[in-house]
Amino acid sequence: MGYGDEIMASGIAKRLTSKKKIAFGDGKKIIWTKESEIIFLNNPRVAKPGDSLYDVLWEPYYRGNRNYFSSVANGRFIWNYGFQCEPGEFYFTEAEEEFGRSNAGGVVVEPHTAKFGNSHNRQWPIDRMQTVVSNINNVIQFDYGKKILEGVTPIKCTFREAAAVLKYSKAIISMHGGLQIAAAAVGLKGIIILGNFIPPNISTYHIHDNLIGYGPYCGTIDTDCDHCKESLDYISNTKVLERFSLLNV
Ligand SMILES: [Zn+2]
């Protein structure tokens, strides 16, 4: 999908790491997206397109073959419950580190989901996130053209710079998505509003307090799913604030 998938790949590379570089592809060709280039920058574990393929370790995780789901049937992801996501990693440049340090100490809030077919089934009501934000101090929101909540400090930057800011932040509050996955990679704790679209073993990290709803992890892609909506509605802003207070930030 986007950055998240590639950060997850960096987690796989970290686990598999050996003297050989990890080649994400089909055994013949490295298959990267434009996001791969951004996420794998300076990563010594990962083979790049154009590198020698003589002595690499192939890993069949790439766009078109994301093995956290086995298929799509009747408009739903059929999840692979055996998949366990692992924290990824970034190799920041000194300039990115400096950007992170110069925006340190906030609570990062991401009230939006990425623009994919299923995003509406993962979207917690934005007015609830506004209520949460209005009750906490020193909140940062990354500004990439979507609605900015009231009372936050917007930061315009690249995705890598955003990940560096996460590294120096106090906590994150978000739904499932690229920023949540980046937060796990840089060791930032927080509250993740997951609902019941995707199973926790595929999509969440132990460092986070992950809030689920109820019912099956349905994976409905293109249509509005009442179950997903109800499951997210079940997670109140009071509950998010209660859990947030337990983080002691
Ligand atoms: Zn659903």
How would you sum up this structure, described in words?
This protein is of the alpha/beta class. The protein folds into 2 domains: 3-67, no CATH class; 95-245, Rossmann fold, CATH 3.40.50. 31% of the residues lie in helices and 16% in strands. It is built from 9 helices and 10 strands. The strands form 3 sheets. The protein has a 6-stranded parallel sheet with strand order 7-6-5-8-9-10, sandwiched between helices. The longest helix is centred in the N-terminal third of the chain and has 14 residues, at 3-16. The model has no long low-confidence stretch (mean pLDDT 94). The structure holds zinc ion (ZN). Zinc ion binds at residues 121, 218, 220, 225, 227-228.
Number of helices: 9
The name of the CATH topology of the largest domain is Rossmann fold
Helix amount: 25-40%
Which small molecules are bound? zinc ion
Shape: globular
Distance between the termini: 32 Å
CATH architectural type of the largest domain: 3-Layer(aba) Sandwich
Summed up, the domain count is 2
Judged by helices, strands and strand pairing, the structural class is alpha/beta
Question: Which CATH top level class of the largest domain fits?
Answer: Alpha Beta
Provide the spatial order of strands within the biggest beta sheet.
Answer: 7-6-5-8-9-10
What's the alpha carbon Rg, rounded to whole Å? 18 Å
The total of beta strands comes to 10
**SSE order:** HEHEEEHEHEEHEHEHEHH
Under CATH, the homologous superfamily of the largest domain reads Glycogen Phosphorylase B
